Amino acid sequence: ETGVTQTPRHLVMGMTNKKSLKCEQHLGHNAMYWYKQSAKKPLELMFVYSLEERVENNSVPSRFSPECPNSSHLFLHLHTLQPEDSALYLCASSQEGRVGETQYFGPGTRLLVL
Amino acid sequence: DAKTTQPTSMDCAEGRAANLPCNHSTISGNEYVYWYRQIHSQGPQYIIHGLKNNETNEMASLIITEDRKSSTLILPHATLRDTAVYYCIVRVYFTTIFTAGGTSYGKLTFGQGTILTVHP
Predict the structure, then answer these.
(1) A103 and B110: CB-CB below 8 Å?
(2) Alpha carbon B44 to chain centroid distance?
(3) Do A104 and B46 touch (CB under 8 A)?
(4) B107: nearest CA partner in chain A
(5) Closest CA to B76 of B50, B49, B58, B55
């Protein structure tokens, strides 16, 4: 397994459901990110974890709850979502503290909230 | 991070070079130019980055003007699979690990990008 993987790739859930998105990076990186991409909108940064500590929370509603149990895994727990939360959710990782480093993205989870 | 300006869309014939421009007139001395692309409904893919010298890798070449206020991404022989949205991003070149409240963790700010369509 290489790079950044995300599961599931597609998810349909009702507004009362609870689900989790999973991200795993195999690059030995020390920072992980969640992004949201709604239709015809730029990517929006949601959360950043650096050395397993959350360092950014961009005014994301509490119905989205991230978890980073170790440097290789990142979760996004979802509960009581709204239809407008339907989007592509992308995970990324990077090795911060090095010159010129960049982020590598996973394939995304396409979420549909009914 | 400095803002960038890119054309909304471009077309290119298959097999020809695709030259995608980007303006970043407010770029700072400590900021790199990064290029990513996103094929429909997939995660963004890193292409190349540079500071002030021209760069080339197996995917593309990056030409940065001497004053660093603009750059061009060149795909030398475009194929149909190069059809995607191309993002030009400027970002600080060195990041440190910050605890909550810090800002230098490597933030990428994506704009609307350029929709490149490669046609037969």
Answers:
(1) no
(2) 11
(3) yes
(4) A45
(5) B58
